[in-house]
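User: Second chain of the day. Same drill as before.
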Amino acid sequence: MDSGLPLRGLRVLELVGDLGGSAGRLLADLGADVVRVTDPSAPQRQPMAEVSTWLREMTHANKRGVTLAAGDADDEATLVALIAEADIVLDGRAGQTGHPGTGAMAGAPSGPVVVTIRPFDPAGPLADLPATEHLLSALAGLVAHTGAEEEPVLPPVGLAEGLIGAHEARAALHGLLTLVETGRAPTVDVIAVDVLAAAVARAAEQESVGMESTDTPATIGDILREGTGVQWEPAETFPDLARRPVAVPGPVATVDGVPIGWRHGAPRGGEHQAEVVGEWLSDAVAAEGRTPWSRRATTSTQPITPPSIDRDQVDPATLRARSGVADLWRRPGVPVRRIDPPLGYPGDVIEVLIDVLVSAVALSDRPESDIRVRSVDVVRSHLGGHLAAESQIPGIAEAEGNLAVGEAPSGVFPCAHGRFCVVSIRDDADWAALCRAVGRPELADHPTLGTTPGRLANRAAAAGVLTQWLLRRDPEEAIASLQAHGVPAGLVAG
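Assistant: Same format as last time:
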């Protein structure tokens, strides 16, 4: 099925963390054999919102899955062996307790290329702070100039992850090109908040103040009814989730006429355990060490012709309108408004995707290729969770405003002196940390607020615990206290 894809035969090991899953998805879309490694001993947070559940399914499509527990000697030995057979390792577990570390396991300078995704600079003051997509968006400035002037609004879930993942995929392929050219495999750190901040800064340079699309903003429902850029998968593809056919984003591009996009659903835990271990490790035994794919790619002496690239030129405001982003990125009940100053999305994601495609073609050693990209499909791919959820429950993919659906209290909150901050309470452990930070430890075990379902049913009460405390304190000091207690929190930058 993937015989015409440029990265066919590339082996990618993805060590699952909280960020960067869309990088593995993009490489898998291009034909790589991406194996998603989950640790069953690690805490598992189940999404409480329909859109977030479907976003996870979209992020991990086209991959295979194995489970290997940190601390189990046999599983760790298997992980080391798989890493040795990988061409690329996407490490999303950096800094997590019990993670043995890919640097020590990678070993030989000839591979694999190790790309580590971190939310913050490991040498910076936020190195140990848990991160969420919304928190990173706030700290990077993606939230600052949205919504009405008096209150910023969070971007729809999936947008920041899409930007981060595209940059991580580009770093991985650039690393592989470096290995091909020099014979040495680089280790690359991708700092998520810096990626987003740089994208926002570049977008601010490119967009005119007050830029406004003349297109009527499309809703997710409009997109499904129109059907352009959407493909439908049978409900059987999504066990325990789908009740009817599921809408997934269509291809983001074509390479030599071959679509780059959805092929099959996400793995269920370790469903490919025996298959992957058998294929990857038996090859090594039979060959006494597999020749890395990247080294095989250098054997051809045929010169590479730069690919022909056909892309449309659509201004950012129109992209946001046509893709569904503009309709989702607002407060409920507030009409879509002109973005002034610039919004900062989609930033440079189209250019980064083209770079990924060009790098993939170069690594495949094709004499020439034709690449076609439709910008609105690239942006719409970041809303895969919304498309799938809407296809199951019509009307659910609506503007969420500054609340993180499925978490409470989470979202944008007012602070003293007219400032705003983002706080993300992902689970009961975060809630207990928040209660300690605000001097109300007894609320951690409150019969209603002590559980996620209870807080979701009583959002106002849960949020009140936080907002009353925030408004009575200096914003910088309040956020420093929350962060010191391990609460994902930060002031809205910009």
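The first helix runs from residue 21 to 29.

User: Great, on to the next one.
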